[in-house]
Every structure is written in C-alpha cells, then in structure tokens.
Design brief:
107 residues, alpha/beta, three-stranded parallel β-sheet, two-stranded antiparallel ribbon, 3 helices, 5 strands
Length: 107
C-alpha cells in the first residue's frame, strides 16, 4: 500500500534520505505489518496527494483532517491519535491584552 504524507513533526518525520518515522507513521506501519502488508510512504503536498489518489497512483493520504466536504468523496479511519495543541508564554511578562485568555471562547 502506498500512502502520501508530508512532514508534520513529530507525527510524520522525513529524514534527508527520504526515510519516514514519527508517531503516526509508526502506528500505521505496525498496524499494516500485523496484516502482512508492506507500506510505502511518499511525500506530496496535499493537493498533489489528492490528485494522485483520484488517479489511482497511490492508495491513501495521511494525516488529514476529516471535513464535511471530504467525507462526501472519501472514506476515513477513526482518529489515529488525539492531541491538543496549545501555545504558551512566560507568566508575568507584559504582553498585549489579546493574549490574556485561557479558553478559545474568550479569544
């Protein structure tokens, strides 16, 4: 199976030799290995990956977000991992009032 991806560290890491690793890569590779399926990862920007899938040149793409538009055309797995991304700054630093929120709803 050939899966398109793009660098998305630490989930997808591509070294200078084109070798893939990272949390999601490792999970997918191990899952397919258990079924005796070899996985080939290839790097493509999202738009090119979609074209290659639609032309049957590759089998899948990851990691991609599920959207209403995409589910009309593609099948999706359950989430491979769940993560929450945040940003932080030093307490006590005099920062713009725009940063003084704790919940997205307060933004």
């Amino acid at each position: 199976i050939t899966i398109a991806t793009d660098k998305y560290e630490p989930y997808v890491i591509v070294d200078n030799n084109g070798n893939h690793s990272g949390i999601i890569v490792d999970i997918i590779r191990k899952s397919f290995e258990k079924k005796g399926v070899n996985v080939i990862f290839e790097n493509y920007p999202f738009t090119r990956a979609v074209i290659k899938i639609e032309n049957n040149e590759i089998d899948a793409a990851m990691p991609k977000m599920k959207t209403e538009e995409r589910i009309k055309k593609y099948l999706f797995t359950e989430p491979i991992i769940n993560s929450k991304s945040n940003f932080f700054y030093i307490k006590g630093r005099n920062i713009s009032e725009d940063f003084k929120w704790k919940k997205l709803e307060e933004f």
